[in-house]
Structure formats: C-alpha cells, structure tokens
Amino acid sequence: MADENMIALEQAQAIVLDHVEPTEPIRLPCWRAVGFPLAADVATDIDLSPFANSAMDGYAVRAADLAGASPEAPVVLDVIGHEAAGHVFEGTIGAGQTVRIMTGAPMADGADAVVKYEVVEVLDGDGNEGSRVRFTAPIAEGENVRAAGLEAHAQEVVMRAGETVTAAGAGLLASAGAAEVEIHRRPVLGIISIGSELVAPDRVPARGQIRDANSSALMASALQAGADARFYGIATDDEDEISAKIHQAMAECDFVITSGGASAGDYDYVTALVRREGEVLFDRISLRPGKAITFGLIGGVPYLGLSGNPAAAAVGFEMLARPAIRKMLGFRDLVRPVQSARVTHDVKKGQQRRFYDRARVERDDATGELLVSEASSQNSALLGTLHHANCLLMVPEGLKGYQAGDEVCCVRIDIEEGAVL
Ligand SMILES: Nc1nc2c(c(=O)[nH]1)N[C@H]1C(S)=C(S)[C@@H](COP(=O)(O)OP(=O)(O)OC[C@H]3O[C@@H](n4cnc5c(N)ncnc54)[C@H](O)[C@@H]3O)O[C@H]1N2
Ligand code: MOO
C-alpha cells in the first residue's frame, strides 16, 4: 500500500463514473417523480390553457363599449348570460351587452376584456341575466383575460429529459396530460459491513466489539442520493464469508459497497479479493479521510470498497458513490456546490494527500462575510463531527495548510448538486 499508488480524486471519480450508466426508465405518477430527472421529454397534447379565460370574477365586456366611460358619463350594459363552473355561455356578446363571468371560465365570444366585480355597480336584479350593470371607467382590450396557450401550445415540450421534476413541475406535467412520466429506476445499492468486531446496532457490544455504524450511515446516504439501499449484513473478517456476501449482493444490485477491510491490516482482504475475482481499477486515492478505497468490477458489477473508519467511509461515499448514483438516475449535475469562505483558525495538514476537513460555514451577522470553522477533531473514527458539518474544507495536495483569514474552498455537502450559491 505504497502511497505512490494513490490517484487523484478527480481521476477516481472519472473511473467510477465511466463504469455506471443511467438505469432503464420506469413509469410512475408525475407527482412521484418529484426530485428526480425525467428520462424523456414531455410534450403537452393540448394548448395550456386550452381556451382563453377570465383572470377575475366580474363581467366580460367589449372594451370598445366602455371607451368613454367615466363617473360623469357611466356606461350601462345588459347582462345576457353567465359563465360559471359547469356553465358555459354559448352565445355572442353584441354591442351594449355583457356576461357575468367567473375566474377561469372561458371568455364569451365577442368579449375582449373582463371588469372585476368590485368596480361594477349592479343597477337592478341579481347581477345575472336580465340585470343591468354600470361601468365608470374604460378598460384596455385583453385586460384580465388569460390567452389560450399562455403556458404552452399543443405539441410543445414542457419539460426536457434531465430536468428535475419540482412540485410545480408535477402540476405542469399533469396539465400536459402526463399523468405518468418516465424517470430512471432507482439504482439498487447493496451495502455490506466488514469486521469481526461489529455487532448490530440493537445489541450491546461485548469487550472488543463495536456497533456497526457504517451500514446505517451509508444506507442513509444512499437513500438521500436517491438510491434503493439494501443491507446484506455484517461479514466477519473471513474471506469466504466476505466473498459470499459480495457475490449475493452483486447478483441483485446495480452497485455494491462494503466498508472495512480495505487497508493494510492482517485481515484486510478486500482488494485481494476483487483482484482475484474481478478487476481492480484503483485501490488508493489521494484523499483524507478515505485513502484506502478500492474500486473495481466483479462479474461486470461496479464494486466500491470503502475504508472502515466511519468518517472515511462517509466521505468516500460522498465523493465517489453519490456522483455515481446521480449519474444512474440521469442527473446532469454531479458535483456539489463549492463556496469560498474565510477560515477562522489555522488549518494544519501533515500529509501530502488532499484533505477534506469537516467544517461549518456560517455567515457573520455583523459583516455579512462567510466564515468557515473546522471541527475540533478530524479523527476518522468520529461521525459526530461530520453530523455537525455543513461542508468539507478542501486543502489541496500542494499545501501544508492554511492560516486564519485565508480564503478556502468549501464543498457544501448540505446543498444539492446544481444549486447556485
Ligand atoms: N498500517 C497502516 N494502517 C492503517 C493505514 C495505513 O495506511 N497503514 N490507514 C489507516 C486509515 S487512514 C484508514 S481509513 C483505515 C482503513 O482501514 P480499513 O478499511 O481496513 O478498515 P478496518 O480496519 O476494517 O476498520 C478501521 C476502523 O473502523 C472501524 N469500523 C469498521 N467498520 C465499521 C463499521 N461498520 N461501523 C463502525 N466502525 C467501523 C473499525 O473498528 C476500525 O476502528 O486503516 C488505517 N490503518
Ligand atoms: O483513509 Mo483514513 O480515514 O484517511 O483516515
């Protein structure tokens, strides 16, 4: 495990992404697609809206009739019909006539504007057919009228493949007749924890044992990234047991992840196992935490062997598995937003490899400036520091650290890829 075998993170990311493809499309109700990119363009089958309609409750008029209206010279029109939910006026408005109309009702033929109730005086009757109503101001043609096809015209694409469906977008798809849409199937991610010291979270560890934290953290990360996460259990440090679990997962999953057994210890078998049973594409990355990461193929299925140290496993997932899941889901944006901030304390880096330190960016209330503070410990065994972090502070390979006040790059792990900061 000589450090000279370490490859750059970007190289590792490119290798992983080269070995995953978007999953096949599935159909589901448009509202269930929220948060996922469409797998195919959606065109509307009809004009949206299909007809010109009123934007107000009021009276549909011919603007020309009201041209000279004023408080001194009001115009009185005859109400010849109404337009309400479930009742469409089929006639045509002639000179001196109007139709009582509700918001969203089709514009009556002959009318070209709508005057809202509040500025209309009903002279007699109930305001419906047979009444007379008075107007004291002119109105512009088209006022309070929503044109047919305002949102889109028939056959027009309203949402493109790769666009993420929003809640508003689900409504737009429904209007366009796309009650069901195609998105890429959630990739199935198999998770395995490796280590004879591990016990399930619902057990009290005996001496020398610890609870398996990684599978919960990785399953949660997989879920957050949009994958269907499946846990294949804890494998003890036994080569045959690890191999059996990996093969079981390989047969059922699009991507398999283990944590533990990736380093140089007496029981760290993962890389050798992949080399023997498949193909290793890299096994060391210039990354801290998360140097000891193996990626390869077994039976053509991508396999990522993360470090056992919990923070290293989590950062390895964030940097390598999350972009892969997003690519499989058809997302175009695979990279988290990066923000520049001023570091509050000195940052030390004792090794050559690139560091991603757990940190928090906050805005200084007094100055409005973005400040970033590192967690007090960067120990890879600690998960609480990552839980409280909202970013990973990047210290590149060439640097030995930063001084308080330096501008640094922060990868916002709390914000979705593609967001503009
Ligand atoms: N001689 C060397 N030793 C180590 C090196 C090295 O370069 N030379 N690198 C260290 C670094 S950095 C890391 S990271 C770890 C990677 O180790 P492994 O991937 O082999 O992981 P394990 O040895 O199995 O476990 C490490 C650590 O994490 C705990 N662990 C493992 N699985 C879980 C789990 N599911 N939930 C919670 N905690 C887990 C395990 O008990 C160990 O404490 O290697 C270093 N050593
Ligand atoms: O890969 Mo190890 O966690 O750097 O910490």
UniProtKB/TrEMBL annotation:
Q: Which family does it belong to?
A: Belongs to the MoeA family.
Q: In which pathway does it act?
A: Cofactor biosynthesis; molybdopterin biosynthesis
Q: Which reaction does it catalyse?
A: adenylyl-molybdopterin + molybdate = Mo-molybdopterin + AMP + H(+)
In which domain of life is the source organism classified?
A: Bacteria
SMART domains linked to this entry: MoCF_biosynth
Presence of keyword Nucleus: no
Please give the name of this protein.
Molybdopterin molybdenumtransferase
